[in-house]
Amino acid sequence: MILINGQPENRIPVSDRGLQYGDGLFETLAFRNGELELLEQHIMRLQRGCKRINLSFQHVDSLRAELAMLCAQTAEDSVIKIILTRGSGGRGYKAPLENEAIRIISSHSMPEYPEANQSGVTVRLCEQRLGLNPTLAGLKHLNRLEQVLARSEWDDRTISEGLMLNINENLIEGTMSNLFIVKNQQLLTPALTQAGIAGIMRSKVMEIADSMSIACHEKALTVNDLLDADEVFLTNSIIKLWPVKTLLHNDTNTHWQHGALTQQIQNALKDLAH
Questions:
Q1: Max Cα separation, the chain?
Q2: What cofactor is needed (predicted)?
Q3: Which end of the chain, C or N, has fewer beta carbons within 10 A?
């Protein structure tokens, strides 16, 4: 099911700036066990993103009602996607002086990842690099061509994710996930001040770590930091947490165990309605 500004519809004008320029934001939520997980955190990130890109978003209550309508007609666990665009504004990059976000929400089948949460996943390093843009860093904006190109680098179903570096060779994230390293019983995650998406699940893991008195640091990380890690895991709102068991790099394999700290965080993520 798809709703556009609350109405059943599956088309937008060709002139929509989301299509023309990637001028907008999106959120991906898990609908599990009859609940939208971490809804308030997703809405807050949308509002922060709208402020950053100067996109008017006044109809938050309407969005909540539309999400409730969509979920009421969704019987199974699903992926719910929210897209906000700046709407139509004529040809040219200059945004209209007055605009109100166009709301597009849709439901999709929940993907299955057999045993990934327990046995761990295999990842690779991508050749595609992320550019530096502190203005857009952290935002879940519609310009995802770097990730599209990175994900096109492999077609091996045994590889679940690709890790991306920026042009300065710092680790940033996966093509669809955030990265955590465990070293000496501490969590390390890449700083996202120049590139990358500040994921909702990433924030939740950091919150959980703080509540458990587990040190968690955001910092510049390199491939050598990754190779030297005790444990590695990935997060996003749909997968929650994937332990990484194998990294394919330069024709060699690096292996990690599904370690104790990873399992501790994983157990804390089981109930995520709020």
A1: 55
A2: pyridoxal 5'-phosphate
A3: C
Cβ atoms within 10 Å of 70's Cβ, excluding its own = 20
Per-residue confidence (pLDDT) for residue 162, from 0 to 100: 98
Contact by Cβ (8 Å): 163, 125: yes
Quickly tell me which residue has 């491939």 as its tokens.
Answer: 223
Report the C-alpha gap between 7 and 22 in whole angstroms.
22
The three-class DSSP label of residue 41 is: helix
**Catalytic residue of the set 27, 37, 85, 140:** 140
**Candidate list 27, 37, 173, 231, residue with the active-site label:** 173
Active-site annotation holds for 28: yes
Q: What is the CATH number of the domain that holds 70?
A: 3.30.470.10
Q: Is the pTM of the predicted complex or chain greater than 0.90? A: yes
How many structural domains are present in the chain? 2
Instruction: Kindly report the backbone phi and psi dihedral angles of residue 163, in degrees, each rounded to the nearest multiple of 5, phi listed first.
Output: -95, 140
| Residue where the block lists tokens 């952290």 | 138
b/e per residue 133-148 (b: at least 16 CB within 10 A): eeebbbbbbbebebbe
At residue 273, the pLDDT reads 52
Q: Divide the 274 residues of the chain into consecutive groups of 10 and give the mean pLDDT of each group.
A: 92 93 97 94 96 94 95 91 92 84 95 76 97 96 97 95 98 98 97 97 97 96 97 96 94 92 94 60
Domain interval for residue 69: 2-109
Is 242 found in the same domain as 120? Answer: yes
- Which residue bears the tokens 């587990």? 214
Q: Is 204 a catalytic residue?
A: no
pLDDT attached to residue 115? 59
For 81-94, letters b (16+ CB in 10 Å) and e give ebbbbbbbbeeeee
pLDDT value at position 216? 97
